[in-house]
Amino acid sequence: MMVSDAREAPIKASHPTELSHFAPSSSAGAPGSAPDSESAPETAPTPASPATPEGFRSGFVCLCGRPNAGKSTLINSVLERKLLITSNVAQTTRHRFRAVLDSRDYQLILVDTPGIHKPEDLLGKELNSTATKALADVDAIAWVLDSSVPFGRGDRWLADLLGSSQLPKILVLNKTDAASDAEVEAHREAACSLLEFTDVVALSALKQRNIADFISAAVCQLPPGPRWFPFGTASDQPLEVIIAEFIREKVLLNTFAEVPHAVGVTVGSLEFLPKRGLYRIGANLHVERESQKGIIVGRGGEQLRRIGSAARVDLEHFLGARVYLDLRVKLRKNWRRDLSSIHRFGYGEGLR
To answer: Based on the structure, what is the number of domains in the chain?
Structure first.
């Protein structure tokens, strides 16, 4: 099933997103496909700019936590732009995602990871593995807690995992907008009874409260170092991956039950037409069963058009240009239980 969606009316942004702000596409396979795991880098990139001012600090801070703790929302608030998708659906984040905050005096690379949870399939196990492996290649850890829900067994299990690391740790008490002072304090006491922290920051990523305090706490943990990414780089992920995630977010927000978890999105084609100020994007929505395909397409293609229209609005704002979006729904049976399919979609360790 195919649904195309475009709008000819101009939008506010006048310049398209610079492709240099993102990692290059994989040279193997279609745009948006994962590179071969043998050639993908395991550790931080080599310095992009050896000459930096005296006293310049740079490094990597990994955000970890349970699903829906608000890690991706926090990174968006730090960057003051939407770069990562968010939803209330568990496993929204499926990539190890590096986002870059640049300053004259420092370069802070925030590493977003999938929420650590009890896995129900191979995809879940791979996402957990991605999250735990990310702890090995960073300078500090930020444990993001949802202060609006009770501190539970999963949090204690995560504290045990983090306790095995000697890296400095920042406690982030998120969602203060939805929690009472007593609830926030209860989370602080529970976490501090299990681990030692260099700093504790209570904030609301959604309402953008105390974000500067978190940035200051993170920058304090950065060692002297080079600028790892060229100034102005937004992320280490290819632009196709960002686009695919924006589309997947709209699937998460418009479907229910098992469908959101069963959908993978890849971008098959991406072309910018300068004379028209238009991006032509072709994307595939992969599902596991025919019944899921019918749900996403909807009666007469109505649901797929709804998903496409919502994704196009966000993409036009993000890319700074008009977008023609061609969506196709394809069947790939039981892809969440097939490691090669998981990596082909770029999830887990598919893209680093």
So the answer is: 2
Residue 211 shares a structural domain with residue 67: yes
Reported in sequence order, the residue ranges of 69-168 that DSSP labels E, i.e. its strands, are: 97-102, 106-112, 140-146
Q: Of 301, 299, 298, 296, which Cα lies nearest the Cα of 261?
A: 296
Highest mean pLDDT among 22-31, 39-48, 163-172: 163-172
Would you say residue 292 lies in a domain?
yes
Across the range 170-187, mean pLDDT stands at 98
Same domain, yes or no, for 195 and 249? no
Q: Are residues 196 and 265 in the same domain?
A: no
Range of the domain at 15: 2-21+238-344
Give the C-alpha separation, 4 to 2, whole Å. 7
If pLDDT is split at 50, 70 and 90, which confidence band does 79 have? Answer: very high
According to DSSP H, which parts of 22-150 are helical?
71-79, 122-133
Residue 27 resides in a domain = no
Q: Which tops the pLDDT comparison, 116 or 204? A: 204
Tell whether the model's pLDDT for residue 73 goes beyond 80: yes
Helix axis angle, 239-254 relative to 302-319, nearest 10°?
140
pLDDT bucket at 343, cuts 50 / 70 / 90: confident
Model pTM score:
0.80
Are residues 10 and 107 located together in one domain of the fold?
no
The C-alpha angle with vertex 348 and arms to 343 and 349, in degrees rounded to 5, equals 70
Neighbours of 226 (CB within 10 A): 15
125 touches 105 (CB < 8 A) = no
